[in-house]
C-alpha cells in the first residue's frame, strides 16, 4: 500500500513498511545521542524555525509596501482565488500565507 497524502515527495514514494523502518532507524539514532548532541540538534532546529519566521515577516513587509504603494484598499486588491494582484496591467503572485496575513492586519487597522 502506498501513501500519497504526505506532501513529501521522498516519503510519498515509500511503502508503509519502508516508512516504519525509517521511523525505527530515526528512533535508534535519537536513543544513541548524547545530551550535548541532542541540545545541539534542538538549537539548530530552533534557529531554522526563527529563520523561517523572519523570512515570512520580510515577505509580509515587502508585500505590504507594494500593496500600499499601488492600491488603496489592500483587502480587495488581492484576488482571493488566484492570490494575484495587478500593477500597470501586470499580474503579481502573492504567497497565500502572506495574502492572509495582509488581509488580517488590514481588517484590524480598519476596525
Describe what this molecule looks like in 3D:
Residues 1-41 have a biased composition (Basic and acidic residues). Residues 1-50 are annotated as: Disordered. This protein has 111 residues and is mainly α. It has one domain (9-110). The longest helix is centred in the middle third of the chain and has 36 residues, at 35-70. It contains 5 helices and 2 strands, in the order ααααββα. The mean pLDDT is 73.
Global morphology? elongated
Number of strands: 2
Oligomer category: single chain
Low-confidence stretches: none
Share in β-strands: 5-15%
In total, the number of domains comes to: 1
Largest sheet: 2 strands, antiparallel
The strands making up the biggest β-sheet line up spatially as 1-2
Helix percentage: 55-70%
**SS content category:** mainly alpha
Mean pLDDT: 73
Task: Work out the radius of gyration.
Answer: 21 Å
Number of alpha- plus pi-helical segments = 5
Biased composition (Basic and acidic residues): 1-41
Region (Disordered): 1-50
Characteristic terms for this protein:
elongated, about 70% helix, about 110 residues, mainly alpha
Question: What is the fold's blueprint, element by element?
Answer:
Elements lengths: L8 H4 L3 H16 L3 H36 L3 H4 L6 E4 L2 E4 L2 H15 L1
Antiparallel strand pairs: 1-2
Helix pairs in contact: 3-5
Quick summary of this structure?
With 111 residues, the protein is mainly α.
Amino acid at each position: 500500500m502506498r501513501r500519497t497524502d504526505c506532501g513529501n515527495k521522498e516519503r510519498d514514494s515509500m511503502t508503509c513498511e519502508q516508512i516504519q523502518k525509517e521511523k525505527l532507524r530515526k528512533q535508534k539514532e535519537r536513543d544513541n545521542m548524547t545530551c550535548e548532541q541532542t541540545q545541539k540538534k534542538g538549537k539548530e532546529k530552533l534557529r531554522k524555525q526563527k529563520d523561517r519566521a523572519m523570512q515570512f515577516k520580510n515577505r509580509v513587509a515587502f508585500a505590504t509596501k507594494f500593496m500600499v504603494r499601488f492600491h488603496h484598499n489592500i483587502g480587495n486588491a488581492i484576488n482571493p482565488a488566484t492570490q494575484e494582484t495587478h500593477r500597470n496591467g501586470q499580474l503579481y503572485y502573492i504567497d497565500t500565507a502572506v495574502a492572509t496575513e495582509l488581509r488580517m492586519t488590514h481588517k484590524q487597522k480598519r476596525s
